[in-house]
Amino acid sequence: MQQDANIWSRMRLKMGQGVRSTYKEHKLFWIATLLIWLKTYLAYTLFFNVPVTNSAQAFILLINPISSALFMFGFSFFFRGNVQKWFIYGTLFVATLILYADIIFFRFFNDYLTLPVLFQTSNAETVSASLGSLLNWSDLLIVGDLIILPFFLRKMDMSKNVASRGRAILAFVAAVVVFLGNLTLAETERPELLTRAFDRELLVKNIGTFNFHMYDALIQSKTSAQKALADSSELSEVQSFIDSKHAEPNPAMFGKYKGKNVIVVSFESAQSFAVGLKAPNGQEITPNLNKLIKESHSWDNFYHNTGQGKTADAEFILENSIYPLGRGAAFFTNGENEFRATPEMLKEDGYYSAVFHANNKSFWNRDIVYNSFGVDRFFSETDYDLGNPEDLTEWGLLDDKFFEQSLPMLKDLPRPFYSKFITLTNHYPFEMPKPEHELVPPLETSSTTLNHYVQALAYQDMALGKFIEGLKKDGTWDDTIFMVYGDHYGISTNHNAAMAELMNKDELTPYDVAQLQRVPFVIHLPGQTKGVKHEDVASQIDIKPTLLHLLGKDFKNEVLFGTDLFSKQHKDYALFRDGSVVTDKTVYTQETCYDRKTGEEVKDGELAEMCKQSTKQSEKELGLSDKVIYGDLLRFLQTSK
Predict the structure, then answer these.
(1) What's the Cα-to-Cα distance from 71 to each of 170, 197, 214, rounded to whole Å?
(2) Which of these is catalytic: 114, 209, 311, 583?
């Protein structure tokens, strides 16, 4: 017994010495691994606000940075001496920049970076105008070590460190073991996790931000090959699905406005919660939009479908009735595809198409995409007078000046025309250039962004009112279908606490967040004086089919995922790119089912089954829509025509 005890004691001593020796020899490896682990976990808890509902999820969140850290720094063992030291620092530097880029992107878009987004370099200059407002002193918790470490590393001598392929392999094996353990736990929490590429929050929460980026790169390589491998049989599958959900036009509305002009206004960052809202002094924030609603068709339960492309996604949906991509923006990744966009389709009926936007023509790759869409004329910033600094925000021309300068250009267009106006003023960070531009006082919540949001929206609304006056004055109004739609959310979930204050709630539930994705949608028809409020659940995907039927355009053999909102066969249905689904009875979001009328969570029964069926439908629909884009399937439709 004594001999056994001595052997065990010697073994423990030897192991302890080995661990201490390994730590001493490779101290920087362990320090760097620990730093990435801590910084990633801090990002989850302080910046990403990743939702955790149980102890298993909390544990997964805690361990998921480990595997990627071991893998990244494991490569350092292939080097020796001080080269190993600076390789570790370089890897730490790059990994930290990736993490920090994720944080900045999340603050702006409430989403995680993907490879397609990184290709959107032409947007960088314009977006950089808002970069200063996204920086925070707390960011030093993430990047501060990069500044301090070099001073210590200069004094650290690692010249005796040898390269060791065995240690590198050991680090990689450890990384794989930790990752597989992590993934096993995650799959227990959420089965078929890796099939949900559209739910980036779920993936980051379960496999970690760095592993997510590697997974994203794998998805990118897969989607890049889809176009080369696609054939017309895939289009047939899509068309069969489209035919199954086709809604016949309302005979009373079909073709009633054939040959009329069309004006579509993209109302930047407008959300429905602010329509009808009053400022602290009792002023209406959107008096002109409110007035238009009283004289038009409007939808209270109308949702945006946008993904990472935001305004560009909204345009893509509007013109094609095809869902945006779950990663990046189709405007960039697939801008030169074959499309059957609204401008091209209406050209067959003699329409001239134009887009008005006082911004750089290459922003969101518009100059390329509009050619693919069949747009006849794009009025960009070179067509506007931007010489007066008083007329500008950091994003471009103030909306009232934009509409004022656009009216004469619109007047000269051939008739009938299809035109789109893209506003700018109501854009993050929602700060007006001067006090005189603040038409209403700010809100009084804990969020400066939300407080200023209503001021930017009020200015945008004022500009809309002036535009409508101008159209009436020059005679265009009476012969025009006039549409206004909110393009995407303006207030992200980063401001949920302040939004809860505004809504007089203790906190927002996922149901509340889903309901906040409603955006205004208004159609004013020529000669209309009395408003009609529609309670149907609808979304941006339904705009194009609705408009085409009003103009008497049949699209039975086309690929449109939406349905005519005036059709009696229209189904109450709206889906989001994150997998959320809203129907007339349910809201499914963040893997939870809710009763749409009460907002109460539903776990079983008829409504729970409805949620299950609607999510299956949404996954199929989004998958087919993605096939159309990645496979460039409409080229086969073009060939058949």
Answers:
(1) 10, 23, 12
(2) 311
